[in-house]
Amino acid sequence: MIHLFGSHFGTYEVQGIEGQQKLLPFRHDLEPSAVGAAFLDLAEHSQRVTQPMVRAGWLAGHDTEAFAGELRGRDTFVPVSWETAVALVAGEIDRVRTRHGNASIFGGSYGWASAGRFHHAQSQLKRFLNLAGGFTASVNSYSYGTARVMLPHVIGAEHREAGAMAPSWDQIALHTDHLVAFGGFRMTNAQVEAGGTGSHRAGDWLARALARGMRMTVLSPVRGDAPAGPNVAHIWIRPNTDTAVLLAMCHTLLVGGMVDDEFVARCTTGFAPFAAYLRGETDGVAKTPAWASALSGVSVEDIERLARSVRWDRTLVNLTWSLQRARFGEQPYWAAIALCALAGSVGKPGAGFAFGLTAVQSIGQPLRKLQGSSMPQGENRVRSFIPVAAINELLERPGGQLDYDGTRIDLPDIRLVYWAGGNPFHHHQDLNRLARAFQRPETVIVHESMWTATALHADIVLPVSLAFERDDLAASSRDNWLVASRAVSPPPAMVLSDHAILARVAEHLGFAGDFTEGMDEGQWIARLYDGYRQRHNELPDFAMFWETGFACLDPDDEAPRPVVPFAAFVADPAGQPLSTPSGRIELFSERVRAFGYGDAPGHAAWLAPEEWLGADLAQVFPFHLLSPQPAHRLHSQLDLAGPSQASKIAGCEPVLMNRDDAAARGIAEGDLVELFNDRGVCLAAAMPSSDVMAGVLVLATGAWFRPQAGRDAGGNPNTLTGDRRASRLSQGAAPNSTLVDIRRLS
What we know:
The protein is an alpha/beta fold. It folds into 3 domains: 47-141 and 381-471 and 493-544, Rossmann fold (3-Layer(aba) Sandwich), CATH 3.40.50.740; 145-358 and 566-595, Dimethylsulfoxide Reductase, domain 2 (3-Layer(aba) Sandwich), CATH 3.40.228.10; 616-744, Barwin-like endoglucanases (Beta Barrel). Helices cover 28% and strands 17% of the residues. It contains 24 helices and 31 strands. The strands form 9 sheets. The protein has a 6-stranded mixed beta sheet with strand order 5-4-19-18-17-6. It is globular, with a radius of gyration of 25 Å.
């Protein structure tokens, strides 16, 4: 037996005796992450929440419903007993649902709190709130919320999920001649997987493909977005202009007589209006390589060369998730689909398009994916919901409406926010606006293990155990490993799991039996494992699994399960149609056009963001800010641990900037700087480099938001990002369309 801990960074072996444990790489992991080994740094951190706490201003006024929400984020907290805390939480839930209805409860949660299937905070909270009568929910994600809404209109709902249309890595390694990556190809992102993994494989597969002779071209404002290796080239491109380049590649095929007419006729609809747009017949602007070059900085020669490669080589066009986290983020994805359709490359092994290779570990992995049961959440009797990035509108505009995917969403009057798992004061945009919006609800309840900004903006903070302080079953629905994740050390005396907390509140409200079903946490874990075993009968029984520490479907990496997306559809479009209205790839969508959204037309189109380097606002704020995922933490998780702290400069988050830009402003390496715009001011430390394009700043997301004296001392880029959505169609997050300025602190 080996003692394992499963995390989003992968699986680790626990060594040592109590109080002196350390996490070592799992013996089966090809490319283990050093970041996840730092989880134990948080066990006794000074920022831990170790007992129930209640905000002083709320405690003084809540009995009379006196509203002191303006003090959230600045008030002091008072320790209380668990009995008092549970009574307060239960009382608030009952008060709000009785007086205002369950739609006035917003169940805010996100999925990254734990890799475990049982201690999954989002599932636990939704199960609890559903049993309490329901709640206003959120849908989609910050990571992939734009594409997930748009793709069903273009290639069918069966391809809406992240990675659903990526060719498998074995097919890339065998067949791809040229991998063209828009937005970058960061291998550090592939170290992460929701639910974890037993073995990271993306780097090994890429190395095999490059060793075979596959060429790779990466278009990005940051040279470091291109992986090291033979045959890898980098092309500079201005942020937010990828759609223009992709449209110009389509134009090159169209006017050069290179369109695969047979494929277009059999497998697509809407070619004529899209072609008219490319020629400029609808708006007077032909989408030529010269036009795109002026916008993007990519040369005419490179655009034409890449277009020919997509048509005549076995070329795979990959787009990062970050490209759809921008204004009009639907458009680069739609343009890439159109390009590959015009080239006739869809449905061929190792060719066509992919979205998010290396965005997380699992995308493109050629393996049999786990099918199993998840923590049952029950039915939500409340029908109100929001796209996850619309929290500010929800809190600011009770009784208002929001456009979304052809419908109008009614925004309820939220009186109570209950948050367990996730950190909106990291994920959300325009954090100063979010702080103001968080003043409005009567009560904010948060489960937290650390004193994050979200905890500081709450009224009741309930201390929750960290992932390594409880037993669980770690597994990902996109992977093939099951891990018996066993507690490394116990939590502090007054710290409980989300499940234990909610069970206590449920008992106060009279439905504890329905919530726990009479089972303890160990029995729940065994039940969830048996759900996998019912679908995969080769798995050992639970006792043997728990003793062994792990199980894996098809562990032999030399026997991959190839995936060629759209192959069946392309072979027989009539017999194997897509779930789009036409059954085909929609180059033009009449359904989307009929929505009447000016920011989401009926075909792929160039729409200039309000904030990009070609906007008038760039005369005032001349730098485009990009906020990629960090290499040393997961979102804001582990920012206080060793790897993230070691990456900082004098305790400040580093901001990458072009050397010439830095010299022009008298900024040297390590200088403290302020990034600013009309939304806020953010402190960082300068890292001048030749690896970033002029006019671009790169500040990784996830540093803790710490507002002090009118600026964020923590270095969180969402202090500065705008809270505009990608479009009215998707209401997806759009942080990567942000302009700022930078100044050296004297």
